[in-house]
Design goal:
This protein is an alpha/beta fold. It contains twelve helices and eleven strands. The strands form three sheets. A seven-stranded mixed sheet has the order 5-4-3-6-9-11-10, with helices on both faces. The chain has a two-stranded antiparallel sheet with strand order 1-2. Helix 1 runs antiparallel to helix 2. It starts with 8 loop residues before the first helix and ends with a strand.
Amino acid sequence: MPEEKVWSVVELLKTTMAFFVEKKIDEPRLSAELLLGRVLGLQRLQLYLDHERPVTPSELVAFRAACRERMQGRPVQYIAGEAFFYGYRFFVDERVLIPRPETELVLEHAMERLAASGLASAQSPSILDIGTGSGCIAITLALRLPGARVTAADVSADALDVARRNAEAHGVAERITFVLADALDSSFAEKAGGPFDMVISNPPYIPEAEWATLQEEVKQYEPKLALVAPQGFEYYESIVAAAPALLRAGGVLCFELHADGAAGVRALLGSGFGGIEVMQDYNKLDRALSCISA
């Protein structure tokens, strides 16, 4: 009986990428790299630095099992247990949303608005992240603004467990306060504390009526609680209503938007906010709205 082929890292990557392309798997290169890196215990760059390394039979078995999961539709980030946001690695599983590149743009926009407000130059700006999920926004802010004091709130205790794990991994857990609270609850502002220099949120904004139209990978694996609101605007309404208690005068409020949500959110703000700005993403869709508390 002939011996099974011994694969090198680079051969296995190339073959797997081609197979994923043929099967129309999203992000074929990223999928192959993350899955093989997970099995071998290597970062993506290390795969190419050690490209001639042979893959052992047991590693090959584990890799093939991971590829089968990917073929069945499970997101590669959940299989690998990691996702990248703003250049940082975060642990993720089905308890939290997978961080999106569009949210990186929202974060950049928020930091620019905070810097322009003058509050970022304070010794320790205070920031509230509502709907923290994996903690990617809160933790990145803590890493990028070493003097900041960050509060990360979420309605899901499971999500907060993931966020705490990530904060500890990045060495910023002591500067982040984790709060279990629902932004739709009238007691939210009291539980969150404040007032804050900035409130940022990527809230559930997909209307229930749109749920059925989403990708199967999203519907099957990502937490609906973090994505869907009955009409799509409930969380915006609640956060804006709580803003006078959450934000100090001159503070920044920044939202991630549904692609067609800018006009609706702008209408909610009324006279209590000025300096409203809307930022578009790579696809020229409205993605972030920010404003300054009066």
